[in-house]
Each structure stands twice: as C-alpha cells, then as structure tokens.
Amino acid sequence: MSTVYELFLKGKSRLKTLPQAQPSLEAKLLLLKCASLCEEEFVSEPEKEISKKVEHAYFELIAKRRARIPLAYLTGYKEFWSKHFHIFPGVFIPRPETELLVEKVVELSSRKNEILVDIGTGCGNIAISLASELPWARVYGTDISRKALRVAELNAKFHGIASITFLYGDLFFSLKKLALHEKCDFIVSNPPYVSEKEWMRLGPEIKEFEPKQALVPGRTGLEFVGRLIRESLPFLKPAAYLLFEIGRGQARKVVSQFDSRWKDIKIFNDLRGIPRVIVACKAK
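RE: above sequence
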C-alpha cells in the first residue's frame, strides 16, 4: 500500500501538465476527499498507509481532473468568504473576485433592519455570506435554476442560516407577490455577463461543465445587466443601493446605461486591478 505522501506526490506529478492548474493544492484536496483526511492529518501523518480502494478512487479523481472537470465538482465544495459551499455539477462555481460584492454591502450597511435581495443566487454564496455578516437583515435569493436553489437551501442549512428566503423565477418576477415595492435596501447580483464571442474563447473547464445560462446572457454580455438596472428601481427604497459584478472592459458601457434616476455611481477594482463591481444609489 502507498502512504499519504507517496500518493500526494504521484497525484501532483499527474497534474503538472494541466493548464492553469495548481498541482500541489489540487492533488492534496482530492486526496483529502478520497481518504477522508483533515488538513492536520495530511501534515502530521505523511507515512500513514492508504488502502488500495482509496488509492484507486484517488487516481480516478485525478484522471477526471486531467479531463478538465472543475476541481469544485470533484471535491463537492468551493470556499467563498472563508466558508465552504456545497457545489454540484450544473451549478455555477463561485469566484473569489465576487467577495468584493459582499465586502461593499457590509461597508454600506446601516446596521439596522434591512432587506437584501440577491438576484441569480446560484449556490447561495452571496446571500449566505451577507446573512452571516448582517444577521439583522432579511435576505431573499432568486434564481431561474431549481437545481441551484436546492443547493442554496442545502448551503443555508449547512451554515445554520434561517433568515434567507429562496425564490424561483427570472430576475424580479418572484418578488412581485411579496409586496417589496420600494422596500429593499440592497439589491446585489453576480449576473451572467460573458458575451457569445468571449464564451467561445473560454477553456473546457467552463464551456463543457459549467451552466452556460449562468455565464452568457446574450450576444453582447450586457443583456442581463441592462434589465437589472431597469427592473431594480421599483423595488429599491430612495437612496438604496444596487451592486453587481461586471466583466473586464465593460465598465464604461455599463455606466452609460444609468440615467437620472440614479446617483453616486462608483466602480471598484478587484485584487488584479480589473474594474469588477458597480455600486449605484437610487436617487431620492
């Protein structure tokens, strides 16, 4: 039988040629999953022997990763805002740059009773992160994917968050029956913003495995954003905020879609210096 460290080295070696991979990290995470090890055991027990059954399962996962299946779909989780979120194939995988959305909402919060809406909630990572940071808030998460909503509900239960209501529907459709007209303090979204042209250039991890509807809204990539700006207005209080993520090179075109009903429109860069989050305040 092989030891923990021996298997790790073999897995790392097999992942070295994988484009844009992190061989050491990915080999370790897949081994932790297969061998039911925690991080401490991986470090403190490198000579622990691993059964042939676990070894076989490990190399099967390594082979799937080499076939460009996203790591999160193989481990079953993704970290976001220092929390683990359950992830399943067919559900959009959270990205670290989206944490900037959560950060800005927390900065702007009045620390009083507030209503927050997360449009296109996916696995619930934004809504759950905000609910954990702002426990006084009522949070709603909407999505057009029933599968994503089931995963979001699972994640909310996993994190012990009971203050979120998840709703099925396109954009604001499911909110109309909740009498939230001019009652929302924040509307946030990580919307689909990839153009059809950009989609064709993406790697197989995304194109072949992640849900296209969570990434591509139409030909230009701005179709969803335009609707978000227009359709959020009736639900926001005066002086309340709309915050959403954008893609590289979209800032100028997105800002041009705001009219006189908005004020204090700001753009914030992610850690790579890319304009990533738009914050806009509804005029009084």
